[in-house]
Amino acid sequence: MIRIVNAQFWVHDQDEALAFYTRMLGWEVRADVTMPEWAFRWLVVGPVGQEGVGLVLMPVPKPPMFDGSTSEALAELVAKGAGGTLFLETDDCQAAYDELSARGVAFNDPPTRQPYGIDTSFRDPSGNNVRLTQVLEFSPDRH
């Protein structure tokens, strides 16, 4: 059996990302290991109570992994939201929106009813997209 254990976001600043995911979203640290000989930090966070899956907060690579212009281009794309999307699910989108807003999360839109549920979105400090959905009963075959 193959299973997903971690997903990854590029981040501009690991400490800033760590503060966002732990303080503002209320997640926990799963791993925070610095390897000085490689000038590398393995940083993983995840939702409390959902063991077995984490989000790796990986710094945008700099030389020698990427040349300077590639590193800068990737950082710019991430800041524009082109780094991908993390899809989160909640039992109560409005309550989660209210709680996270009170913690300082800036949402792109209020919880909005969609054919599949109630949905909203926000971005992390690096620009990564996060969608928060309360799934309601629906049929994918519905037209």
TrEMBL record:
It comes from the Bacteria. Residues 3-135 form the VOC domain. This is VOC family protein. Coiled coil: none annotated. SUPFAM superfamilies: Glyoxalase/Bleomycin resistance protein/Dihydroxybiphenyl dioxygenase. The lineage of its organism: Bacteria, Bacillati, Actinomycetota, Actinomycetes, Frankiales. InterPro entries: Glyas_Bleomycin-R_OHBP_Dase, Glyas_Fos-R_dOase_dom, VOC_core. Pfam families: Glyoxalase.
